[in-house]
Amino acid sequence: DHERPMPLRYLEHCPEVSDSRMERIVRLAFERWNIFHCPLIHRVGRLGVGDPVVLLMIAAGHRQEAFSDTEFIMDHLKTEVPLWKKECFEDGDEHWVEQKQADTQARKRWQS
Q1: Is 85 helix (H, G, I), strand (E, B) or coil?
Q2: Contact at 8 Å (CB) between 25 and 76?
Q3: Residue 86: beta bridge partners?
Q4: Cα separation of 77 and 73, whole Å?
Q5: Around Cβ 84, how many Cβ atoms within 10 Å?
Q6: If you placed Cys at 59, which of 22, 37, 38, 110 could pair as Cys (CB 3.0 to 4.6 Å)?
Q7: Contact 94, 88 (CB under 8 A)
Q8: What is the C-alpha to C-alpha distance for residues 34 and 46, in angstroms, rounded to an integer?
Q9: What contacts 9, CB < 8 A, 6 or more positions away?
Q10: How far apart are the C-alpha atoms of 14 and 69, rounded to whole Å?
Q11: How many CB atoms lie within 10 A of CB 108?
């Protein structure tokens, strides 16, 4: 049984839209929790399997605020920021990855 090699991944985005949406999500987190600093970076372009994609650092007065803030930002990032992922295999097969229903469900817990 031959296992298919892992694909290369390409993440594409529209910088004007994705950057403004990421800034909005971080702003919402500042309004919701007592955090002091929150840089967020999402890589785009060609990425290998296992390459780091997101850098999110939280400076907060309490660890629970930092944990909640991190989950909030990641749940919103996965559903609100337009990033498109294409997987390309050595055999020439390629496809766009669909958004996961689990990501949409995770985001719903923050609605009030």
Answers
A1: strand
A2: yes
A3: 10, 96
A4: 6
A5: 13
A6: 37
A7: yes
A8: 36
A9: 46, 47, 48, 49, 51, 85, 86, 87, 88
A10: 25
A11: 9
Contact 99, 79 (CB under 8 A): yes
Residue type, 76: H
* The two three-digit tokens of residue 109, written as one number: 């817990």
Q: What is the residue whose two structure tokens read 């766009």?
A: 96
* Model confidence pLDDT, tens digit, residues 24-49: 999 999 999 999 999 999 999 999 88
In this structure, the number of other CB atoms found within 10 A of the CB of residue 26 comes to 20
Residue 65 makes CB contacts below 8 A (sequence gap 6+) with 33, 34, 35, 58
pTM, two decimals, is 0.86
